[in-house]
């Protein structure tokens, strides 16, 4: 139900099943992944020995130049204010970039751990399945006559026949065993 005043045209209905009209954006669009990759590269570079060596060289040259150069050639008219400003600016940008890189690494680690956990679950399930199958095969083999079992049964039969022959000899050279049949 709409609340319209008499004499005003009806307001257009908003449809949720259709996309709305695109509004112009005030800020330019950017790719967050590209920015994240760039910040990681900068953070990795800031954390290297090469960066520290170059920064030390620049600071030493800066200080030596501003101490030994003639007054009109110095970069810093006041004692090292511009150097302090540059180093503070570098530190103020480095800390958030390093934090962003750490957060992205933590996200990647979380995804990798989740994938590892799922892989481990699949491996455990496969191992349990194979264990059950091997147990079923062993139980089935317990009921099957194996070569060793048949051999031992045949040896027992041969032994039993030998014992019967000793107990019931089959007649000598002139005797027949026909009455026994």
Shape: elongated
Structural class computed from helices and strand pairing: mainly alpha
Low-confidence stretches: none
Main sheet characteristics = none
H/E element sequence: HHHH
Sheet-strand content, in percent, reads under 5%
Average residue pLDDT? 82
**Helix fraction bin:** 55-70%
| Count of beta strands | 0
- Please report the number of helical segments: 4
From the N-terminal CA to the C-terminal CA, the straight-line distance is 112 Å
User: What is Rg?
Assistant: 46 Å
Attribute tags:
elongated, mainly alpha, 4 helices, 0% strand
Brief overview:
The protein has four helices and no strands. By secondary structure, it is an all-alpha fold. It holds the Pfam family DUF1003.
Q: Helix and strand layout, with pairings?
A:
Elements: H1 32-46, H2 49-68, H3 81-142, H4 147-167
Helix pairs in contact: 1-3
What does this protein structure show overall?
With 181 residues, this protein is mainly α. Helix 1 crosses helix 3. The N and C termini lie far apart (112 Å).
